[in-house]
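Why should sequence recovery work at all? Because a backbone constrains its sequence more than one might expect. Tight turns favour small or flexible residues, buried strands favour hydrophobic ones, and helices have their own preferences. The token representation captures these environments compactly. In the example below, the structure is given first.
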């Protein structure tokens, strides 16, 4: 009970962080819209094309549910290994999947919702190819196309499965789970956009802390206003 209450309170703390991250990401998008990206337009177009093409596949073709479930369970397995555990008994069907893990925590349980396994795999393959065969570097747009498509795959299925009554979410509480998933997904998007923007990491961090400060001031002003509206006791 105490652990669940602690996670609820941590989720409440994450709410303003999520809002501040959203504000910073919005400003980053405005900066990108007003200034050319560091990547050539062909690279940007390839990534956006991957995102759009998967969205069209999602809307008009049968979804690759089994492929997502396989990635979902493999992500549980990967993260339990990162924490020193051992996975076993992987099962995948159209109706769902499962994997047994010897070590479990919030990171292992929620990892499939914030860690895009297939995008990570594409990135590793590209890094390996460019290291072993430098001649493939001009094919960067192809790599970025698959980055965009696999990331879009992750986001669409994550949103879909979060609408279900997921045991992963129930295990750690909705507020904590949703805020953590939202914050980490937003952070990944922000870091990717920051890498191609004219903004530096220090400037982005300063904007984030400024947004947190403004939120704190807003809460303080609302609290003072609320005190003036409460009936006075004599």
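From this structural description, the recovered sequence reads:
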């Amino acid at each position: 009970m105490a652990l669940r209450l602690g996670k609820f309170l941590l989720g409440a703390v994450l709410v303003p962080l999520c809002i501040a991250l959203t504000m910073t990401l919005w400003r980053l998008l405005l900066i990108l819209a007003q200034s050319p990206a560091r990547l050539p337009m062909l690279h940007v177009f390839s990534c956006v094309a991957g995102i759009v093409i998967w969205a069209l596949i999602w809307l008009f073709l049968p979804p690759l549910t089994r492929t997502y479930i396989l990635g979902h369970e493999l992500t549980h397995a990967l993260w339990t290994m990162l924490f020193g555990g051992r996975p076993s008994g992987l099962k995948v069907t159209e109706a769902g999947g499962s994997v047994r893990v010897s070590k479990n925590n919030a990171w292992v349980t929620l990892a499939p919702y914030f860690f895009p396994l297939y995008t990570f795999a594409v990135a590793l393959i590209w890094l390996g190819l460019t290291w072993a065969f430098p001649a493939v570097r001009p094919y960067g747009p192809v790599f970025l196309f698959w980055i965009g498509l696999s990331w879009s795959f992750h986001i669409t299925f994550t949103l879909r499965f979060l609408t279900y009554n997921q045991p992963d979410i129930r295990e750690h509480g909705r507020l904590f789970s949703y805020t953590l998933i939202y914050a980490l997904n937003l952070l990944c998007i922000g870091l990717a956009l920051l890498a191609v923007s004219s903004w530096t990491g220090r400037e982005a961090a300063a904007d984030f802390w400024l947004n947190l400060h403004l939120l704190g001031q807003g809460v303080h002003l609302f609290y003072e206003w609320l005190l003036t509206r409460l009936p006075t006791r004599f």
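A few observations help interpret the result. The mean pLDDT is 85.
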